[in-house]
Write a structure and sequence with these properties.
With 224 residues, the chain is of the alpha/beta class. The chain is built from 8 helices and 12 strands. The protein binds calcium ion.
């Protein structure tokens, strides 16, 4: 069972896809516009995104572009009109994505979704990578060094651990509890503001815009 986000403004298509996914045991959520779809996709709650191109507010190409530039690696299956397939293929230079030309048969869409979910479920290579790179930030787990745009940063052990969990989950909202758990383990006072303090330290070093505050929830790493 997967959490699947459908960003599609044509209600008939959205409900057809949602119904089919539910029948296959998945949990679909539908959003009908580009900006809302992007926000939802960045929440980190979904395993896969089914994305229409022609959308109000922001088109599917822009949504995909912003999603990738904020570091999200979630698999995306793009829905496109048959006469724009050439444009679509050209836009999907990122090999992680796939497309379906409209009109499509549900069985075809499901085959693509299954394939994408399987690829995404493969053992998470990222968790074992020695050098993590997101945007201009590079973190080397062997030397425990972090650089931004090639400039080495001087990080404390806590700051390094914090940078590491952010870089393992780019574009996703991490709660204070998740950050506490990864960086401080059980050795902390849950009532303290230690996470906020250390996020502040890290922000000063990696750049203020790199870590966004998500009010009432936590933080999201999104380097330029
Ligand atoms: Ca549309």
């Amino acid at each position: 069972m997967a959490q699947i986000l459908i960003v599609e403004d044509e209600e008939r298509i959205a409900s057809f896809v949602a119904k089919g996914l539910r029948a296959e045991g998945h949990r679909p959520t539908v959003v009908g516009d580009g900006p809302g779809g992007l926000d939802e996709a960045l929440s980190g709650r979904y395993d896969l995104l089914v994305l229409d191109i022609g959308l109000p507010g922001m088109d599917g190409f822009e949504v995909l572009d912003q999603l990738r530039s904020q570091g999200s690696r979630m698999p995306v299956v793009v829905l496109t009109a048959r006469d724009s397939v050439t444009d679509t293929v050209a836009a999907l230079d990122n090999g992680a994505d796939d497309y379906m030309a409209k009109p499509f048969r549900f069985a075809e869409l499901m085959a693509r979704i299954r394939l994408r979910l399987r690829t995404a479920e493969a053992p998470d290579a990222r968790a074992h990578e020695e050098v993590l790179r997101v945007g201009g930030v590079e973190l080397d787990r062997r030397t425990r060094r972090v650089s931004v745009g090639g400039t080495q940063l001087d990080l404390s052990a806590r700051e390094f651990a914090l940078a590491e969990i952010f870089m393992l989950n780019p574009g996703q909202v991490l709660t204070r509890e998740q950050l506490l758990d990864h960086v401080w383990g059980y050795d902390f006072d849950p009532g303290s503001n230690v996470v906020d303090v250390y996020v502040g330290y890290l922000r000063r070093k990696v750049g203020a815009d790199t870590i966004a505050t998500v009010r009432g929830v936590g933080y999201r790493f999104r380097p330029a």
